[in-house]
Amino acid sequence: MLRENINDLISFSVVAKEKSFTRAAAKLGISQSALSHAIRGLEERLGIRLLTRTTRSVAPTDAGEQLLSRIDPQLLEIEQGLSLLSGQKESPGGTIRLTSAEHSTQTVLWPAIEKFLPKYPDIKVEITIDYGLRDIVAERYDAGIRLGEQVAKDMIAVRIGPDMRMAVVATPSYMAGKPHPVTPQDLQHHNCINLRLPTLGGVYAWEFEKEGRPLRVRVEGQLILNSNSQIMKAVLAGLGMAFVPEDTVQKELKSGKLVRFLADWCELFPGYFLYYPSRRQHTPAFALLIDALRYRS
Asked: What range(s) does the HTH lysR-type domain occupy (predicted)?
């Protein structure tokens, strides 16, 4: 019965996480009809419904949730064991799955990856760019990249970037005739470009600190976007004030395209870290990537 069920259990796990037969089929590389047939067969053999299906969504039943919580750790161990075996070849190989935000991908991850991959032709790296704080264990990522303050306590964290600072910026044309903000509270009188973060309760509150005093300000404006690159286009078009990583606007500040405000309220904070579960067994490929990404000041 194990041989009969193992592929169907993997299929069930992917459908339960993706909450969509369409996305799960694409991820598994099979047709939707074959996937539906596999799930029906598994439910019939077990004699219990594992998924609730509607025209718009798919979700695990209570029994499905129980099964998922039991099989996922075992499936992960099998996957890691196979990765370890593949890593014993003379040339390290295997696929490394990472989740990272847009800015960390552009500034920290990509510069290392473009030097790393040509050295190891048997290693594949899959990068998902996402602002959500994903559960890397449940979704089978090998590691994630986030700011140090966002990494859970039970994860191993490796610093891969320097400390960072944010910047409040706007174009001279937007600021023409408008009062310059002196304190973060003054931003409430400006058209601010907001960032929506899917797992942090919606729209991001701008975070400031001065002399050890933290302050979060919820700003208002005509635009809400979900990536820093979009925000940069909007602020350069003169559509409002933006709160962005300092390194992304250095050229624009130097050229005068943008003007900076509230610099004394934008203190340094820990930069990006690679994080992964403490129980994870390193494959040679993963260990090499950690070393390539490790920040050396």
From this structure: 4-61
Neighbours of 145 (CB within 10 A): 23
Full-model pTM: 0.69
Q: Shortest CA distance to 261 belongs to which of 243, 247, 235, 238?
A: 243
Distance of CA 292 to the CA centre of its chain: 20
Residue 256 to residues 177, 236, 243, 251, Cα–Cα distance (Å): 17, 11, 17, 9
Chain position carrying tokens 């490929």: 285
Q: What are the structural domains, with CATH classification, of the chain?
A: 2-85 (1.10.10.10), 94-154+272-293 (3.40.190.10), 166-265 (3.40.190.290)
3-state secondary structure of 122: coil
Q: Kindly list the distances between the CA atom of residue 59 and the CA atoms of 20, 29, 53, 265, in Å, as whole numbers in the listed order.
A: 8, 21, 7, 45
Q: Please, what are the averages of pLDDT over each run of 10 residues along the chain (297 residues)?
A: 68 83 82 85 86 80 84 71 57 88 94 95 92 77 88 87 96 96 96 83 88 92 92 97 97 97 95 84 86 90
C-alpha closest to that of 260 among 272, 274, 246? 246
C-alpha to C-alpha distance for 42 and 47, rounded to whole angstroms? 8
**CB 223, CB 240: distance < 8 Å:** yes
Please name which of 142, 133, 62 lies closest in space to residue 95, comparing C-alpha atoms. 142
